[in-house]
Write a structure and sequence with these properties.
By secondary structure, the chain is of the alpha/beta class. Helix content is about 40%, strand content about 15%. The chain has an 8-stranded mixed beta sheet with strand order 3-2-1-4-5-6-7-8, with helices on both faces.
Length: about 300
């Protein structure tokens, strides 16, 4: 496994793949690699102009292999999530792969359209709702997968189940770590529920390690005082791997025949910072089944999406 690279991805023809946040960073590299292997890739993105530019780049770099489509999706709006899910269900009778990739990081305190703390709302609740709405198109499809992208930051996270919105306790890193822990808790709990209902779909999770992407653009570069964020953005690539390498755990989780449901995959070296993908270990908090059940219950109540 530790020698695996995207060149090892099996043929993806006849597979339909939905990737959130596919216009940049790890999402773009994931879309590019899967399209190059022949998949029909659906880029679920908030900004249609950026998504169209990304689609053209993919077409150029793959020589037109695969089919690349765009669906509008703003994870900060449950109305947008429902519209996107409706569009996807109308277009495709079945889905083979859903990659919950999009995210925000280290934002100032703020709220989504539905009143959720932004990092929790976008990173977790938006994906929770989208996955539940699309699950009927996945659950009977052989070898279908739901891949949820977490982060090394999950290890510092706690689920504040009596105050998920962090009212009166907000901190950028606290909110981000909670949201990425929620991603991983969700992925593991989803796998438990899929197995209990004998679904065909697997739920797996991954993280990119330290990768040079624009994820921190809004929260660090634009919102840090005295230009500190822009200096950090300039230095960041010196200590990280590329977005293409950071996408390897996602691609492995999405396509490798060796992957099992409930697996968590990240880089192999330097405490999961860089390197080829391998099986890594969730934190103890991520494996707490009681917390997972409470988070699931609250997520259903907040989003209004109940899983079949």
């Amino acid at each position: 496994m530790m020698s695996w690279s995207p060149q090892d991805i099996p043929d993806q023809q006849a597979r339909t793949v939905v990737i959130t946040g596919a216009n940049s960073g790890i999402g773009f590299e994931t879309a590019l690699a899967l399209a190059d292997k022949g998949a029909r890739v659906v880029m679920a993105c908030r900004n249609p102009t950026k998504a169209e530019a990304a689609r053209e780049r993919i077409r150029e770099q793959t020589g037109g292999r695969g089919e690349v489509q765009i669906v509008a999706l703003d994870l900060a709006s449950l109305d947008s999530v429902r519209r996107a899910a409706d569009t996807l269900r109308e277009r495709y009778s079945r889905l083979d792969l859903l990659i919950n990739n999009a995210g925000v990081m280290w934002l100032r305190q703020g709220h989504t359209e539905d009143g959720f703390e932004r990092q929790l709302g976008v990173n977790h609740l938006g994906h929770f709702a989208l996955t539940g709405l699309l699950l009927p198109a996945l659950r009977e499809v052989p070898d279908s997968r739901i891949v949820t992208v977490s982060s090394l930051a999950h290890k510092a996270g706690r689920l504040h189940l009596d105050n998920l919105q962090l009212d009166g306790r907000y901190g950028r890193q606290r909110a981000y770590a909670q949201a990425k822990l929620a991603n991983l808790v969700f992925a593991l709990e989803l796998e438990r529920r899929l197995r209990a209902t004998e679904a065909e779909t697997l739920s797996v999770a991954c993280h990119p390690g330290l990768a040079s992407t624009n994820l921190a653009e809004s929260g660090v570069a634009r919102e840090s005082p005295f230009g500190v964020g822009y200096v950090a953005r300039w230095l960041w690539p010196l200590f990280t791997q590329s977005a293409a390498r950071g996408a390897a755990p996602t691609l492995y989780a999405a396509t490798s025949p060796q992957v099992q449901g409930g697996g968590y995959y990240g880089p192999a070296y330097l405490r999961e910072a860089v390197g080829p993908p391998t099986l890594v270990h969730p934190s103890q908090r991520a494996r707490d089944a009681a917390d997972a059940a409470r988070l699931w219950e609250q997520s259903e109540a907040l989003t209004g999406v109940r899983y079949p």
